[in-house]
Design a protein that fits this description.
elongated
């Protein structure tokens, strides 16, 4: 009698498990077969704190694209026949390409985590909101100062995204995105700030101790070899 009751109980539990499994399976099929995916859909790649970090990353993407365009304008300006500074052109073209490549990498990271980059909506980072857009037709020394300011803004933006991803509030912590920013942006931006600050100081000192035109010419020659 006890054996019969035990077998009946096992069968009942098995039927209940199968019913629950069928319900979950139907839910997945229904959700994934929909042509529109809502934020509450279970058929996406979103997890951890992506909902809270995504707007910050989109703002950082916008900042990277803006800096890429600014650097491209600087490169074009110094590549003109009037300026004829191939070293400065090479420097700013490289920075423009890097910022553009970083934008593409961030877009891929967002989409990998189930997000969508919306270029129709302007997402501003805190640093870019407070920064007045400068003129790009400047001399060589002031262009280095401008580039240094840009790189500091990008470094601050990367730090802001990392800080947001490591926020310990419930549901906001995203260690994968924090690790991604550490590996791909924080150290690189620190190196870029250090390089440009060195360039600006070196050129300023050269222009003080020798003829400014000759100093700029020699520094441009130096940049061509980097």
């Amino acid at each position: 009698m006890k054996l019969f009751i035990a077998l009946a109980l096992v069968a009942s539990l098995g039927s209940l498990a199968m019913a629950n499994e069928e319900f979950c399976q139907n839910n997945v099929v229904t959700a994934c077969s929909s042509s529109t995916f809502s934020a509450n859909s279970i058929c996406n790649a979103r997890f951890a704190g992506i909902d809270h970090v995504e707007p910050e990353i989109q703002a950082y993407i916008n900042s990277q694209l803006t800096k890429s365009y600014d650097y491209l304008l600087l490169a074009t300006y110094f590549n003109s026949y009037q300026k004829n500074r191939p070293g400065f052109q090479k420097l700013y073209q490289g920075l423009s390409d890097r910022s553009f490549d970083d934008s593409i990498a961030l877009i891929k990271q967002i989409t990998k985590r189930g997000g969508i980059v919306d270029f129709n909506t302007r997402h501003e980072s805190p640093a870019s909101v407070l920064t007045k857009r400068p003129t790009l037709e400047v001399d060589e020394l002031h262009s280095l100062a401008l580039a240094l300011d840009n790189e500091k803004q990008l470094a601050a933006g990367a730090t802001h995204v990392h800080t947001r991803a490591t926020h310990q509030a419930r549901g906001e912590h995203d260690p994968e995105l924090a690790h991604y920013m550490e590996e791909n942006f924080l150290a690189k931006q620190a190196d870029s700030v250090r390089t440009l600050s060195g360039y600006a100081n070196d050129l300023a000192k050269l222009m003080k101790v020798s003829d400014p035109s000759l100093s700029v010419y020699l520094f441009d020659e130096y940049l061509q070899k980097q």
